[in-house]
Design a protein that fits this description.
By secondary structure, this protein is mostly helical. It folds into two domains: 8-121, Tyrosine recombinase, N-terminal domain (DNA polymerase, domain 1, Orthogonal Bundle); 129-310, hpI Integrase, Chain A. Helix content is 54%, strand content 4%. The protein is built from 14 helices and two strands; from the N terminus they run ααααααααββαααααα. Strand 1 and strand 2 form a beta hairpin.
């Protein structure tokens, strides 16, 4: 192990390159690490420690930074949630792990403990089947954009795709759909790991209807599956993640479902529905592309509640005789 003569701040660009090249992390993860570490940089500058070297960072510094995060007030006047504080700490812990991997003397990454209370805050939010049906039926399919939007909503719920994975779908992946009643598609998801996703017959029917309209309105050379019909000729036609988020919010209001609904809510809803129907966690892990089963275990709240309700209904003790035996 060697002591580096470069400041921690100077190492951060190298760390981000390491995340991309050696760790193979997604672009979104790299962007998040850069954003979360910016707060650490701001704190170092505030403490006049912007020149601190990796081996000079102490446990006391970590504690002071944690206090800073817990008392930080965002532009809306709110404190950072425990879960958000953990994101900043996870990025810093990853940076310390990078130093260790590169044989640079530094504080061990496991000296940064995450808040246990954050798990209580991060309850999985999902729609039940009645709410999901209202959401899926909310686009006006008498207009072209409504057919597209229905296809997007059906796809999100059928496949459990992440928003970036949905945005990245291309037209060529859906060639020769005429006779298909369902479809298995291989995609490369988060962390550049491939997995299979499955489109229901219902989702495919709406994709077929959308493609008929799309081919009439758009250059067939356009690669993107989901496009903005009203974009300028010189503008990118592929819908962005932000466009999809706004689209889902719009239909959440129309369908009168909870306002927390986002594209990721549909992913959660797909997973919880599968669990409720008897699928096991390992299968859900494969469907969602989770590398660790620990990530998938956030969905056990569904089975836990279901078991509790069954116990309450069938094992209430009402049928026991009031006997002294």
């Amino acid at each position: 192990m060697n002591k580096s003569d470069k400041s921690i701040i100077s190492h951060i660009p190298d760390f981000l390159d390491y995340c991309e090249i050696e760790k193979g992390l997604s672009e979104n993860t790299q962007i998040n690490y850069r954003r979360y570490l910016q707060k650490f940089i701001n704190w170092l500058k505030k403490e006049k420690k912007d020149g601190i070297l990796p081996h000079e960072l102490s446990a006391d510094d970590i504690w002071t930074y944690r206090v800073y995060l817990s008392r930080f007030i965002d532009p809306r006047g709110d404190n950072l949630s425990k879960a958000t504080q953990n994101y900043y700490l996870i990025a810093l812990r990853a940076l310390l792990g990078y130093f260790t991997a590169k044989d640079i003397v530094c504080l061990p990454a496991d000296k940064i403990n995450l808040s246990r209370d954050a798990k209580k805050e991060k309850a999985v939010k999902f729609l039940n089947l009645d709410q999901m049906e209202r959401l899926l039926l909310s686009p006006d399919t008498a207009v072209d954009s409504g057919v597209r939007d229905r296809a997007i909503l059906e796809t999100l719920f059928s496949t459990g795709l992440r928003i970036a994975e949905l945005v990245g779908l291309n037209r060529e992946q859906f060639a020769n759909l005429a006779e298909n009643k369902e479809l298995e598609l291989s995609i490369v998801g988060k962390g550049k790991y491939p997995r299979a996703v499955y489109f229901s017959g219902r989702a495919l029917e709406w994709i077929k209807k959308y493609l008929k309209i799309r081919d009439d309105l758009c250059d067939k050379e356009e690669k993107a599956l989901f496009i903005n019909f009203r974009s300028r000729k010189d503008a990118q036609k592929r819908l962005t993640s932000r466009s999809i988020e706004r689209l889902v919010k719009k239909y959440a209001v129309i369908a009168n479902v909870p306002l927390f609904t986002t594209p990721h809510t549909l992913r959660h809803s797909m997973a919880t529905d599968l669990l409720a129907q008897g699928a096991d966690l390992r299968a859900i892990q494969e469907f969602l592309g989770h590398r660790s089963i620990m990530t998938t275990q956030i969905y056990t709240h569904v089975t836990n509640k279901r078991l509790r309700d069954i116990h309450r209904q069938f094992h209430s003790g009402r049928n026991l005789k009031n006997s002294k035996d």
